[in-house]
Every structure is written in structure tokens, then in C-alpha cells.
Amino acid sequence: MTTYVAAMLLGLGPGAVYAALGLGLVLTYRASGVINIAHGAFAMYATYQYAELREVGDLVLPVVGLPPRIHLTDTPTFGLALSVSLAMAALLALASYLLVFRPLRRAQPMMTVVAAVGLTIALQAVAVVQFGADNRFLDPVLPQSPLHLLGVTVPSDRLLLAGLVVVAAAGLWATSRWTMFGLATRAVADDEETTALLGRRPGWIAAANWMLAAVLAALAGILVAPISALNPTSYSLFVVPALAAALLGGLSSFGLTVAGALGLGVAQGLLLPLQQDVGWLNQPGLRALLPMILVLAVAGRRGTLIPGRVAAAVVSVPLPAVEPARRPLGGLLLGVPVGIVALFLLTGSWRLGLERSLAGAVVCLSFVVLTGYVGQLSLAQMSLAGVAGFLLARLEGELGVPFPIAPLIATFAAAVAGLFIGVVSRRLRGVDLALITLVAGVAIQEAVFGNPLVTGGLAGSSVPNPKIFGLDLGLSGAGFPRVQFGLLALAVLAASGYGVARLRTADLGRRMLAVRANERSAAAVGIDVRRTKVLAFTLSAALAGLGGCLIGYGQGRLSFDSFGVTASLFFLAIAAVGGVTSVGGALVGGLLVPGGLAFTALDRVAGLGEYQQVLCGLAVVVLAVLRPAGLVYRSGRAARPVAPGGDRPSDGDGGDVLSGGKVRAGPGPQTPEAVDAGPARSAEGNRPSLAPYQVNPGGVA
Fold first, then answer.
1. What average pLDDT does the chain have?
2. d(CA 373, CA 541)
């Protein structure tokens, strides 16, 4: 019994970190309506800054390509290191809000998610460049003297950290109830424009809350550093359990957020002795499933994750339509010969980069189907690709299943996984769906890919070369990188791209676009909204799985990191840079994959290969603000924002939503939530924006 009590008390430490980050998420959402999944990255960078100041006395700016280090002192003190690090976090948050998220306040809500993904990738990449990717362990800040409580002895820092978080939550609650700043923040959350009319400045109120949230996150990261190893990935992903706790509190209650976070930490701590005593619980990564279970419980109880924000008539920035592909067969007949010629002309690292780009473009096509056509955003696409990749390694490497049967089975398994996610999340949409897939991706990474029985442990999983009728189509072998694999990847990409282009003009594709434009109107004309979204998830997962098989063949050996959450976020970033509304955008995204053709060019020509992820993350942030449709989108028509309730949308190319009728999807009911995120229209009136990330929260449940 004492073992369980000790484990529960030790779990208060991680739970307190989740609580501090969760309080920050509540602050940013209440003040600006943004769920900042880059919140953990702020804490990560501030903690690295604290470590550098304590160890060498350097201020390390979050920039690359310029002299980033400024030596402050040869005798750094705790007070100096702490104050500078907290100031760094506050300034990062202020710059992020003013330059990125405030300009996106009238954009589709999904654009803030995409921008936060880009910001996370950029900060992680900068941290790797400046500090390295190895784990670092810091000296404790809080006292760790033994504390005797409930018959057990535990370090006192866990309880002190939990107590500090509870005090912080009480202070935030009191501030929100009894101070002018707190009352103004609550007023902004209820009605931003009315608050402005009363003489308050919502932008600066939101900025102050963002800075306060970042300071809390940085303080928690510094205090918990002795408990958890410091590295760019794990610290950034602390935001996932914190997000689960904040969602339990409805992104508004400080008390429920802290209670949920501490309870989550205690439950994770309790699992450790339970796994030793109960054999079937002794599975790696089981603790990572608890946030997903909590999020699913919240979604099941409420029917949604994010509570609706009451707002005045907010005008959405219009985004481009999903244009039908022009002569997809002609593009196929032109693109395939060009690809073949390029494969034979390029050699060495250039050919290898092209072959990796071809495989990565197939994964990017999965975003075109799911996000571009039906308006659903998944942050777990590489997790689905990993299902296929690791199964392929097991089928071919261990069971001897021949090519092409093995990749077909693996792709089917990924499609089934996508079907399951689609069924579970069929009532969710928009940011809700993005968040639940983020939590699910972390759970899959820890519980599935972290299982050595699945991934082969430190040795990884070997994927043999594909062979058919004695012909070796693999990458490795004489003449590496072999052109045969490039031809295989080109054939798969050509078939997949042609199918996705034709899907846009098929009956199913039009139904997908109708669902994205307005779910209630689509249901009113006979479209099964849930079935359409589940089909989109299944097709998208199959494409991701197919890309995962090609990645497996291309790498030859898969490891835990091959298909992690970070990889999923990066693939979303490169797909967004290219544009998720067209096959051409997926092809551009493929060029940007790690080790792809763009990486090779950056490395060989400009010597900037190590900055690829930094540049890609920044590109996502910039494009989210200035060109949300990506680089490939073509439009010569000017557009102006109009409030919902204007002209009714078509399918995006001037035609009807449905292939066989003249019915057009209407604007839906004018609830405050629908006004806040309803469909935006272009200057022509009849032409909707059908944005890549647009979903109407007033749609069919």
C-alpha cells in the first residue's frame, strides 16, 4: 500500500507541470480565443535559456544565421538566470501574439492551429541548432529534503511544486474576479468588440495574458527540470496532457484545470506500481494513453471539446476555393516522363533526395483529401503512416510476405486505423478534431511505436528491398541510390495523384466539398455528413499508409522516431507550405520533406541543410498570415471579407455543390459560434472561400 501512496505523491510533480501549462492555455484562450499548442515550446526554450545562463552565463537569442550568443556574466546567479529566462519567455509570447496570432484573429480557427504548428517546429529546430538534441539534466531549484507523509518518504519538491501551482490558480481566480484587469479579460472573452467600445483595448489585454501564460509555463519548465530530462521534443509535448486538463476545465476554469492536471499526474504515477503487480498492464507507453482517455471522455460528455465563444459579428478572412485540376491526365502524361528523366540524370545525393521527395509527396496527398476536400485537420498522419511502415517491416522482414502483397496489407491496416479514428471523431470538426488527433498521435507514439515488440527497440525494424518476379526495386544495393526504387515511388505517386485529382470532380469529392462548406446544408440536401467524413479519413489514412510503406522501403530500417508526433507536425507544415487544396501543393510539399530535394539543394548549394526545419516552420507561420492557401494556389481575383449570411456558397468552381442538382449549401444558422467561424465569401458573392481549414462549427453533430 505504501508503494502506491508514494507513487501517487511523486506523480504530483509532473501533474503540477501539466497544471501550470494548462493555466497558461486557459489564459490565452480566454483572452484571444487561441489554443496555443506552441505553449510547451515556449517553456522548452526558456528552460534551455536558464540552463545556458546557469552553466556559461550566455544569453542565447532564438535566431539562427546571426551571432546569437551574448555573454552576460562569468558568475551567473540563480536570480539573474531565472529573471532573464522568464523575460525571454514573455517576449517570445508577446512577439508571437502580435506578429502571428493577432493578425489571424479573423481567420478561420484552423489557421491558428497551423500557425502554432509552424511556431513549434521553428522553436524546436532553433533549440536543436543552438543547444543540441541530447538530454540535459539541471540542478534542482526547489529543496528536495525527505518528507514523511502518510507513512512514506518522498522528496519535498513534488509537494512544493503542486502547492505553488494551486496558489497560482487561486491568484488567477482572484484576479479574474476582483481586479479591473481580470474583469476586462473576462469581458474580452465574452464580447471583444463591445469591450473595445467601452474603452478597453482587447489586443493589449490579450497580449498581457499571453505574456503571463508564458511566464507560468517557463517557471514550471525550470522547476521541473530536475524531474524530467530537458530536450526539445519532450518538453514541447508537455502541452498534450496540459491540454487534456484545460479541456476538462472547459478552457475557462482555473480550479478544474489544476484538479484535472494533478489527477492526471497522480494517475500516471499510480500506473507504475500497478504495471509491476498486474501483468497485463505492463505495457510501454500506457501512461500516455491517459490524456487521450480524458479527452475522449470530455468529448463524449459534451459532444465537443472547445466551448463556443460568444462574439460579435466577426468577419473571416476569405480563403481560396479548391479549384478542380486542369487536365489531370495531361499532367500525368507530362509529369511522369519528366520524373523518369530526372531520376536517370540525377546521381548520388540528388537522386536520393528526389526519391525521398516522391515518397513524402504521397503522404502530403493525404492532407489534400482530408483537409483540402473535407475540411478536417489531422495532426496524426505520420502515426497512420507508421502503422503501415512497421507492419510492412513485420510482414516482409519476419513473415516473408512478398511484394506487392505486403504493402497492400499494410496500407489496408492504415486505412482501418483511419476508419477507426474517423468513427470515433465523426462528431468532431475543426480545432476539436486537430486536438484529439494530436493527443491520439502522442498516445500511438508512446504506446505503440515505443513498444520494442512493434518497432524492434533500439535496433529498429528492418525493411527488405521490394522484389517482384526476380526484379529488385529497392533503394540499396549496387549503384546506390538505385533508380529502380525511384521509378517505383514515381509510379505510386503518379497513380495516387491522378486518383486524388479525379476525386475532386467525382460525386464523392463534391459531397466532401459540400460538407466542408456547410455541414447542415449538406445534410439538408441528403448528404450523409458523418459517412462522408469517415470515408475521407479512410482514404486519407490509406494514402498516408502508402507513403509510410515507401518511406520504409526508402529508409531500409525504421525506428521509434521515424513516425513520431514531431514528424506528423512537420509533414503538416510542409503540406501547408505547398497548399493542401491541390495535388500540385502536395508535390511542392514532397520537395520539402526531410532529406528531400529541397534539403539537398539547401545543403549542397547554400550550406543551409541544418536550417531546413527552422526555415520550414517560419514559412508556415508567414504563409498562415499572408497566404493561407500555400504557394501553389493560383488566383487572380481579389477577395474581400464579408460576414456570414451573404451569398450562398457553391462547390468552389462556380458549379453546384452536388453533381446532379442545383441545390446550394446555405450559410447555416446565425448563432454566435457560426458567425465566429462561418464560411467566408469572395468578392464575386457566389464564390465561397472553401478554405483548406474551414469548418462551420454550427454543422451537423
1. 82
2. 14
Cβ-Cβ contacts under 8 Å for 390 (sequence gap 6 or more):
449, 454, 455, 461, 552, 558, 563
User: Which runs of consecutive H residues, i.e. helices, occur in 289-404?
Assistant: 289-302, 328-345, 348-367, 381-392
pLDDT tens-place string over residues 438-468: 988 888 888 888 778 777 777 778 899 999 8
Q: What is the DSSP-derived secondary structure letter of residue 688?
A: B
Cβ pair 357, 516 in contact under 8 A? no
| Average of per-residue pLDDT across 463-477 | 88
Determine phi and psi for 695, rounding to 5 degrees: -140, 140
- One-letter amino acid at 501 equals A
CA-atom Rg of the chain in angstroms: 25
Taking alpha carbons only, the member of 383, 544, 403, 513 closest to residue 463 is 403
Quote the DSSP letter at residue 558: E
Cα 542 to Cα 689: distance, rounded to the nearest angstrom:
28
Q: Give CA–CA dist 573/580, Å, rounded.
A: 10
285: left (phi over 0), alpha (psi -120 to 50) or beta: left
- pLDDT bracket for residue 315 (50, 70, 90): very low
Mean pLDDT of 291-307: 83
Question: What is the C-alpha separation between 25 and 214, in angstroms, rounded?
Answer: 9
Q: Which residue has the higher pLDDT, 372 or 560?
A: 372
For residue 558, what are the β-bridge partners?
461
Banded model confidence at residue 197, pLDDT cuts 50, 70, 90: low
Instruction: State pLDDT tens for residues 585-597.
Output: 899 999 999 889 9
The one-letter code for the residue type at 695 is V
Q: Are the C-beta atoms of residues 258 and 166 closer than 8 Å to each other?
A: yes
The upper half-sphere exposure of residue 44, i.e. CA atoms within 13 Å in the direction of its Cβ, equals 32
Q: pLDDT value at position 212?
A: 94
Q: How far apart are CA 295 and CA 305, in angstroms?
A: 8
Cα–Cα distance measured from residue 499 to residue 117, given in angstroms and rounded to the nearest whole number: 28
Range(s) of the chain covered by CATH 1.10.3470: 2-302
Does an H or E element contain 467, and which? strand 467-468
Classify domain 2-302 by CATH number.
1.10.3470
Q: What phi-psi label fits residue 597: left (phi over 0), alpha (psi between -120 and 50 degrees) or beta?
A: alpha
Classify residue 198 as exposed, middle or buried by CB count within 10 Å of its CB (0-12, 13-18, 19+). exposed
